[in-house]
Write a structure and sequence with these properties.
Distance between the termini of chain A: 35 Å
Number of domains of chain A: 3
Oligomer: homodimer
CATH superfamily of the largest domain in chain A: Aldolase class I
Number of helices of chain A: 20
Shape of chain A: globular
Number of strands of chain A: 28
Largest sheet of chain A: 8 strands, parallel, barrel
Structural class of chain A: alpha/beta
Radius of gyration of chain A: 27 Å
CATH architecture of the largest domain in chain A: Alpha-Beta Barrel
Chain lengths: 730, 730
């Protein structure tokens, strides 16, 4: 289908200083774990977006000098000629498709802990990082400021040599230029502190020096937090933020404005999770910049709808559609608009699983919606291309949750004859209750995207509402191969990783003890006073607590961890999640675990405090350290209902029975059976989808139950082992 | 000086199965951040210990298969031929010195989050990790168990090919073999669960298979937690632990027992920090194993004294001296005993800074005492060899804290003519009060080691009690070069990284407001009720609280972080630290910060709660999320004294004045001046020592104020850039 003309404006070229970008789709800098050390993964990941139609594609934050070293986190680096070579490959891959490559030059000041280089950073004033808390910079004097500007210039020259078209001076997320601009960081009294003009001086001098060095050939961009949301202590739009834009515009130093809000410590105000922020939530700030800037302006905000994109351009909010998460979930979003295939767009769900891996530090990025993300190079996976089945046999996929849907979809794309059978009346598996938690409606896109794709695939039949299949049903079904994907459930007896045992008194067969599924999917009744026992530490405990608080219940959470929903720290949901818990008066018993639940007219939950996140000990040490029970106490909580979010258990019975009857397979002409996703082992939704995808990609290998090797990008001593870009690691 | 004959027993060879170890000094497996991906760093670091006299040297935990992937943490890996090559270099470096190389084969089960490989693990039972909390294994069936054993065998064959002499089946720290053995993990009812014999089956079958595969040429070792300290739920010495040793001994499967205690979640019970455990604290457990094992036994426990080592052998506690931290702090410990240079032993202080970097995940290991640790390859530093000064000029080092002492020591070793001048009556700088905190006496070795070395160096004059030097004093001193190392101090006005501002009402010039130095070094009086404001998050806040609680004060701590002393989680001090706080009734206000201190007869400290670790916000968002002040409340704490541990401030005035008078340098024949350590930017003690060391090593480079580049071990696309081992990155 051809492109709908109403989207033509998205495909108009735009001038960025000396460069022309072919359309208005722009992948802003975002992390992926590849940095400059995994050049194959970096080049293939970014290049895939160029292939998918993004007109401009950037690195993640890219350190300009070893002095600014974010280890244990992974940034790109443009420190030396090796980095020029490695990032050059990314540029080449992007240029192949006629797109522009951008580099985000980064110096972290106090937010760069320097754990690899062991260097101390320089910054406008000497105050410890509010993000890293033990990292202090040196207060730069004027010689230091000259050094810092020279670092940007030298890095820009290396970047130009690597082939970058767009060169950023990165001042958002509380990094160095913003530290000079913001009164929160800058306490100086010399010509680099005090008045706005003085505080802007460093940023402006840096832009001028970089433009002087590379502005002839490269577009100069700057990423600016127009409001750090600190109030008068920081940088506010309408005040310093916009005045700074005016100053820079007057000097004509910038060819592209990349605008956002927030700081580093709470950067979920920028990369807003869908739990708290709708798409395009930064519109008010971005359009203020657009109203005064002369150079093109872009902003982000998880925008996935082409109509919203048109509106952003038409309303004068911005000139270019910036995207990080939307481009991760679907690298081919622009092409799909261009080809009139809007229903094929794989929309970001705003879970921020991608970001969590950067926050953890080190692992490759993953994406809940796009299982091929960061697998382009090391496993040779293309998000839109699938190897045709060598022998397109028939496959029965039992269970239509995330893993089963994804497996069926990819098998279908590959040309297998697939039957996907789901016991319930609708597809989704765990998503059927997850997407009903407060704020998680967008997570339903996990199901809706796959439902749409399965509907389109002629190779896949979907049967819902068929009830649970037995081993007999499967054996007699007539499929050549069977994939069991029947998920997991919340433990009904309070089994947890905290104690490695069940919880005395926990039994969800009783009316006063519930699991989240029972409440949401079965409508099990919940009393007025509720205790949620959360051994999970991600979203479920907090979500069911909020769900019940919204019904007027009085809710408490007990968790072994030192905060509720610890993993939401990594997804940037934590700050607003904790505000929500406070605002909804949900009581938090962190660092506690349940000794026993005493049933009765009123239930008593006896919780004891732990010495540390989830660590339970009963033995007295022999060696003179403090008794393990030192300072313990018991909290006795009274309630009407207990909700068990203690741990998950695979639904493994079906596969076990099937396997135990392997002798019957030949007779039924069953060649192989596999189990995937949560029914193999409970895991993140992203990993369950990945597992289904992987099985389908590797379906013909010797034993697809277990993953094939992947390319590991590391030096092997004395060997140049790099395969060509795009080679498959199989 | 020749070796004292009483230490001869430490140098007797010992048979380990088919291999002979040249002496009794053995570096047990420990992490260093190099893994299999940084083969230069790995080989040079381990090889240095062989050069220093260790007879056996091991890898860190080494994954046997991508299914057991500890990313975000860094393990070694023996997954493929690239790893064989890379780890082979480590073996070569060790063999050069006649020592044996060991490899610790690791499979993590639920404790391996698989963030790089994205694989799920297998384990005896399906219970989430108590350490990783969101990671569930698959419950292995008998086919899986066969697969797992085969993984060990295949890895052992690769290890043998790489050149390893000692091959471990790693069952301590709660990894797979112990998971089968322990009732805490193993809930099976088949032949691999239930009775001790059944629970021991997996470990024994694995040992037998590995011995069968490589036992002809390699010694088979196993690392065993003889007591997981869980009481009857786990594995206790005298019960299952010793019975397991008996079973294995009967079968003759093990050539070396590496014995410790504890689990993974609280493995500071093994790697005991000096704050809570004396050296050799595991003696009771190790000697029980020795009493029944036929094969040689070793244990660890931060042993640094040769007399203690002799006692360990003589008393029948063990046959071999195992060491991790002692060997990091001094790779040449064995040679120094051999050469009768006991006073040169650089003793571990038990701070566990080394371990903290593994816990953080990713960064190279660092050591407070040994600044050359992990710099052997990338910076070409040898802990005992120093390049002679090219031009041995005179150097004045101002300030005898950790950084100044280390700088003077290394300059002295290099042959410079050094004067080290310290204002106070004794060397030590911040260590003068740090080592007086409860439990931190061993940290005093930072000073005592350097004091001894400085005393021995003919090139260094140490002057203490000289009072503060002024810029005039320095200018007229007559040195060619000046190094300013005058440290930092705790902010006296409550400046913190939390608010980036001072704290209203905080003024340590007032009698009721103190800093830690004022209390310990100046004896400033403290009232009965104390509030410690801890913005630091490492040891100081908790330590001064304990110091005052021990004097009978009633102490509260306010911290923005979600636990007191968050960094002590990484040093393994946290569990006992938190027990101590509970036991000493020190009240904890975590996730709070101080709005104001109201002086008066009774001081009032007004603390408000934060939404997340240290994140302070005042602006209301425009976008419909929860108000930033949602659920905030104020705690009003009444006390007699407030202790400010809010943040540190460099003592930068001296260097600034010196620099401002640069015009006078030529006249005074001063060639250059530098500032190092905390007076440049406050940092960890380890990093302050590193900075002093580095400056002295790089003293002749163009601008030694800033570090030279170091070798980065990464693949450069299409280039085989590896320099030869030992090349200097300068």
């Amino acid at each position: 289908m051809p492109r709908d003309p109403k989207y033509d404006c998205l495909f108009e070229p735009i001038q960025l200083g000396p460069k022309t970008m072919r359309n208005r789709f722009y992948q802003v800098p975002h992390c992926n774990g590849a940095g400059s050390e995994k050049p194959g993964a970096q080049a293939a990941f970014r290049g895939m977006k160029a292939e998918g139609g993004w007109g401009g594609i950037c690195t993640e934050y890219c350190s300009i000098h070893p002095e600014s070293d974010d280890t244990h986190r992974v940034s790109a680096r443009i420190w030396d000629e090796g980095d020029v070579i490695n990032l050059g490959h990314m540029c080449d891959e992007i240029h192949k498709w006629g797109s522009l490559a951008g580099i985000e030059m980064w110096y972290g000041g106090p937010h760069a802990p320097g754990m690899e280089s062991r260097a101390a950073t320089r910054a406008p004033s000497q105050i410890a990082s509010e993000f890293e808390y033990l990292t202090y910079p040196h207060e730069a004097d004027e010689d230091d400021i000259r050094d810092l500007i020279q670092m940007y210039v030298d890095a820009a020259l290396r970047a130009e040599r690597a082939g970058f078209d767009i060169i950023y001076v990165y001042g958002a997320h509380s990094y160095l230029p913003l530290q000079f601009l913001s009164k929160f960081y800058n306490k100086r009294t010399d010509k680099y502190g005090g008045s706005l003009e003085n505080r802007a001086r460093f940023w402006i001098e840096t832009l001028a020096a970089v433009k002087q060095a590379v502005g002839q050939n490269c577009a100069i961009a700057t990423r600016l937090a127009i409001d750090t949301l600190y109030g008068a202590d920081g940088l506010e739009v309408g005040d310093d933020g916009l005045k700074f834009v005016e100053l820079v515009t007057k000097e004509g130093l910038v060819d592209l404005w990349d605008v956002n809000i927030g700081d580093i410590a709470e950067w979920g105000e920028d990369a807003g999770p869908s739990r708290f922020y709708k798409a395009n939530h930064q519109k008010p700030w971005v359009k203020d910049v657009k109203s005064i800037a002369k150079a093109p302006v872009l902003g982000v905000g998880r925008v996935t709808s082409p109509d919203d994109m048109v509106q952003i351009l038409a309303s004068g909010q911005a000139d270019i559609i910036g995207a990080a998460r939307s481009s991760i979930a679907d690298p081919f979003l622009p092409n799909k608009i261009d080809e009139g295939r809007l229903e094929d767009i794989r929309e970001c769900i705003g879970c921020n699983m991608c970001i969590s891996r950067w926050e953890i530090g080190g692992p490759p990025m993953i994406c809940t919606q796009n299982a091929t993300s960061m697998e382009e190079y090391r496993r040779g996976w293309h998000p839109e291309k699938f190897a045709p089945a060598k022998d397109p046999c028939s496959v029965l996929v039992v269970g239509g949750g995330p893993s089963g849907m994804e497996c069926a979809r990819v098998l279908g794309e590959r040309g297998f004859d697939v039957h996907l059978r789901e016991a319930a009346d609708e597809l989704g598996g765990c998503m059927r209750y997850v997407q009903r938690f407060p704020g998680l409606a967008e997570w339903g896109r996990v199901t809706s995207y796959r439902q749409t794709q399965l509907d389109k695939l002629k190779t896949v039949e979907v049967h819902t509402g068929v009830g649970s299949m037995s081993a007999d049903d499967i054996l007699s079904y007539g499929a050549d191969r069977v994939v069991v994907a029947v998920g997991s459930h919340w433990s009904t007896d309070g089994l947890s990783g905290v104690t490695h045992s069940t919880t005395p008194g926990a039994d969800a067969a009783q009316p006063q003890i519930c699991t989240p599924e029972q409440i949401i999917l079965e409508g099990k009744e919940v009393g007025d006073r509720v205790v949620v026992i959360d051994g999970d530490g991600y979203f479920t405990g907090a979500s069911i607590a909020e769900y019940l608080a919204d019904q007027g219940k009085q809710v408490s959470i007990v968790t072994q961890l030192s905060t509720v929903g610890t993993y939401t720290h990594f997804t940037l949901e934590a700050p607003n999640l904790h505000r929500m818990l406070h605002a909804k008066k949900i009581a938090e018993y962190c660092g506690h675990w349940v000794e026993a639940i005493e049933p009765g007219n009123e239930i008593k939950v006896r919780a004891y405090n732990l010495s540390r996140d989830g660590y339970l000990r009963t033995t007295e040490p022999r060696t003179g350290a403090l008794p393990r029970t030192a300072g313990t106490h018991i909290e006795e909580l009274t309630c009407d209902t207990v909700v068990l979010v203690t741990g998950r258990v695979s639904n493994h019975e079906l596969f076990r029975e099937l396997k135990s009857r392997k002798a019957e397979w030949a007779k039924e002409e069953i060649d192989a059976a596999f189990h995937i996703g949560d029914c193999y082992a409970p895991r993140m939704i992203a990993d369950a989808i990945f597992d289904g995808h992987r099985l389908a990609r590797e379906f013909e290998c010797d034993n697809p139950q277990f993953p094939l090797p992947f390319i590991r990008e590391r030096q092997v001593w004395g060997h140049d082992t790099y395969p060509a870009l795009g080679a498959n690691g199989g």
